[in-house]
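Friendly challenge for the regulars: who can give me the structure tokens for this chain first? No prize, just bragging rights.
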Amino acid sequence: MKKELDRREFVKIGGVVTAGTAVGLGLPLLPLYRASAQGEVADRSGKRWGMVIDVGKCKDDCTACVDACRKENNVALFGDPRFDIHWIRKAKISRRVENAREISAPLLCNQCDDPPCALVCPVQATYKRKDGIVIVDKHRCIGCRYCLIACPYNMRMFNFKSNHVRYNETYPTRAHGVSESCNFCSHLVDQGMQPACVEACKQAGGGAMVFGDLNDSSSEVAKLVASRRIRGLREDLGTKPKVFYIGL
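First reply, four minutes later:
Bragging rights claimed.
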């Protein structure tokens, strides 16, 4: 109980200090912070993981990627939209023009090279690894939810209830009061494996999702980026997403 009280008090104090600082210094602080953060962009000489999703190969009624993600990462589904967590979800997308066709596509954390969620985190609980994967440290997160507000893709989730779901005994659950999001199944990637969603898509016969090292010109994902017309979501925001779409 004492630990929870200390945490709540820290959130209150941190919220007041951060809000006061932002108001006192004004908006020009953000570009300076962003510029300093850009010095930590993924190591271009090493790995830089990315994903290409071909929406033309994504079947409308297929949820293999969503189901696999949930089971691999113990993503909580309570049956109540107020508390359900979604690291990846299928969505219907269409252009704002008359008679536009509707496209079914999976949406997930875009693993931005310039992630707004990491820039606003007051305790660096959200950070970007050298290989470009954006991680949430659930032990450091204070539950301020600034990252949820900052994410332009609405792909940051917050645990309003403790997550005791145990689909996968080898992956940790999350406590009430912490944020989370897709991390490309970094624990699998570190073992030389593919993210659960990508593997499930392949097994389901879709093959719509391709994952790999964008810095490796011989990788399938790098070849797709170089040879196909791809598009990232809201590229105009300057977040430099590393999830790309074909046919969007």
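Strands lie at 49-54, 88-93, 103-108, 126-128, 134-136, 157-158, 179-180, 209-213, 230-232, 243-246. Residues 1-44 have pLDDT under 50 and may be disordered. Your move, everyone else.
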